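Exam revision sheet. Question 4 asks you to relate a sequence to its structure. Input first:
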Amino acid sequence: MYEKQVQVINETGLHARPASLFIAEAMKFKSNITLIKEGKTANGKSMLNVLSLGMNKGTIITIKAEGDDEQLAVEKLADFITNLKD
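Answer key, structure tokens:
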């Protein structure tokens, strides 16, 4: 298992369009991806799960992965979140 905390910096947060882009990126990895916000967890490859976390600008989330490519997955997804511009 590998995990990393990141802050959502996108002005509009992780709403539908950016969430779909995040999920498309997450689907490239074999590992199971989990997002954690304030103790609430979501499957990082599920649109409904990701949107249910309500990630607005400034939200701190933990990206966790478990599997063959866990470290690469977390690092790439963390970069995606921190560089996301709407």
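Marking note for examiners. The radius of gyration is 11 Å.
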